[in-house]
Amino acid sequence: MKQDMSATELKDLGNKFFSARKYEDAISCYSKAIIKSPSTSTYFTNRALCYLKLHQWELACQDCRRSLDLDASSVKAHFFLG
């Protein structure tokens, strides 16, 4: 992974890892994307889905709540929270 990747590139790489069921690697990419662009709610919901796949319920809920703080209409965040 290149050091100078944009948040979008990191998200795209995270999506590839997610598709390959490499959830920990995807979480790492989404976390780095969040650092670069902390106001993008999608990065939080993408990471939340990885946490759900890994049965890390509380971390998933935290990310969904952060996503909703940024975008109260986030359908994914509402769905993941139940």
From TrEMBL:
Molecular function terms from GO: protein-folding chaperone binding; ubiquitin protein ligase activity
SMART domains: TPR
Protein name according to UniProt: RING-type E3 ubiquitin transferase
GO CC, one annotated term: Z disc
Domain of life: Eukaryota
PROSITE patterns: TPR
Reactions catalysed according to its record: S-ubiquitinyl-[E2 ubiquitin-conjugating enzyme]-L-cysteine + [acceptor protein]-L-lysine = [E2 ubiquitin-conjugating enzyme]-L-cysteine + N(6)-ubiquitinyl-[acceptor protein]-L-lysine
Residue windows of the TPR repeats: 7-40
Keywords, alphabetical: Repeat, Stress response, TPR repeat, Transferase, Ubl conjugation pathway
EC number: 2.3.2.27
GO biological process, one term: proteasome-mediated ubiquitin-dependent protein catabolic process
Broad enzyme group: transferase
Lineage summary: Eukaryota, Metazoa, Ecdysozoa, Arthropoda, Chelicerata
InterPro entries: TPR-like_helical_dom_sf (IPR011990), TPR_rpt (IPR019734)
PANTHER family assigned to the protein according to its UniProt record, in alphabetical order: E3 UBIQUITIN-PROTEIN LIGASE CHIP
Organism of this sequence: Ixodes ricinus (Common tick)
